[in-house]
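Thread title: Can someone regenerate the structure for this chain?

I was given the following input by a collaborator and told the matching structure tokens would be attached. They weren't. Posting the sequence so someone can regenerate them.
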Amino acid sequence: MTADKSKFAYSIFWNCGLITIGALIQVIALKSVAIPHNFVPGGLFGIASLLYYKTGWLDPGVLYLVLNIPMFVLGYIYVSRRFLGYSALAMILIAFFYQLVNFQIFISTQLYAALVFGALLGIGAGMVLRSLGSNGGLDVVAVILNQKFNIGVGKVYFTFNVILFSLSFINLENDLVIASMIAVFVCSVAVDYCLSLFSQRKLTFIISDKPQEIADQAMASLKIGTTMLPAIGAYRKQEKTVLMVVTNNIQLKRLEEIVFTTDEYALFIVENTFNVLGSTFSRRKIY
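Best answer:
Regenerated them for you:
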């Protein structure tokens, strides 16, 4: 079953579908909300939009495609042809849909428009990033830096957008730039949520005097594995066994019930994990 899911995630149909729908949602956000309110998006499209607002030369869709030419080269050299192909598809679709979408979502309040713009853009970008490609532009650089130097994607976006919005303050009204910053923040949250929607897990540590009983019940009732970690209490110097269990949100409450039904004095520690790779969980993404 896991192997079938992995094959489907790498299929052309699945990846092209994600990229097509994600690109269309992003263009609707950009063309129907951002442009009418003169918002400055983050990344390379932000530069394209800023140039368009100031010069009126071409339109942001075409400028975005031109600015992405160096990204094609970097993606080809440092990542893979497959990554480059899917990213190129996303960039072409964004430019293509930009020419087709000609309606406006009428929102009179600037703040509300920023929230809607950020949410739609984040959902669309997140869908594309769930594929084996990217949205092009800054995504390509972020993926390269993450793979080569383990620099977080968020840090790359943050640094770039700080510079972009600093320049925007010089050329645009302060209220407009602040609204754009709110939109970019909402967008980043939406992207993270979209990426972790089916991958987020709960990492639990269980400290109890009855570790074997809890482990047996968890494996029998929830069909999940447990790992026993040796530990020593700092105060009494007694040897203990700490259970480490990775589970999802649905199973978490059932696991909690098993723990405290077995040992009411147990210590139940829960941490959020963005992603769990390997074994019966998600497979590592190879671009």
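The two ends are 22 Å apart (CA to CA).
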